[in-house]
């Protein structure tokens, strides 16, 4: 197994891509800490992991809260004795997030609190524990929108993911020499329940997005999580500061 006995925190593990990550990491032998704001969702993920023969535990976490972020890391150490991977997967993209000229300030602040502060706080408390061990892998989920503009803007989300990319590079330079690697994944549109529910209600928006993708389809959660498994595993010992763009080719398509 590629992640045998590695301890991995997965934020946003109670649903969507986070739940897929928890199941796939556990199937590769990881001991998974499911961190999520939703107790029902997180508990269900843990149950699914255990039913599949894996090992997982749940900690209720608001990743924008420093006490919660610290408690999340403390929970992993207290339960499993170490921390090998912090998979910063959790993020939000509210409906009222549009252009800077019409996005409400409170919506902007909510996005930054979860998508940027949440990554910062997780790293703030996880990296010192990893440094004590002399090893660890930080995996930050950014987005393809962080590297190209969009004519249908979501400027708070886009800005937050750009910040995640910049932070990842800074972490990669600071800590790799002491055994802690940092990398990011920038997915294109992925078939999560949240995205699909929105696009099912708006066929024009769905077709607009599919037309830009050379593959003619949206991604699947497991196609993104597979990259995260590589980054969490010892196979990626010399992968540091990388950004894996997994978007079916959207970002290279001129027309």
CATH class term = Alpha Beta
Beta-strand level of the residues, as a percent range?
Answer: 15-25%
Total strand segments? 7
Question: Portion of residues in helices?
Answer: 40-55%
- Fourth-tier CATH superfamily name: NAD(P)-binding Rossmann-like Domain
CA gyration radius, whole angstroms: 17 Å
CATH architecture, by name, is: 3-Layer(aba) Sandwich
- Give the spatial strand order of the biggest sheet: 3-2-1-4-5-6-7
Let me know the average pLDDT: 95
| Intertermini distance | 42 Å
Order of helices and strands: EHEHEHEHEHEHHHE
Count of alpha/pi helices: 8
Q: Structural class per helix/strand content?
A: alpha/beta
Principal-axes geometry comes out as globular
Mind sketching the topology for me?
Layout: E1 7-11, H1 16-27, E2 31-36, H2 39-51, E3 55-60, H3 66-80, E4 85-88, H4 105-133, E5 136-141, H5 155-175, E6 180-187, H6 193-200, H7 203-211, H8 221-232, E7 243-246
Parallel strand pairs: 1-2, 1-4, 2-3, 4-5, 5-6, 6-7
Helix pairs in contact: 1-2, 1-8, 3-4, 4-5
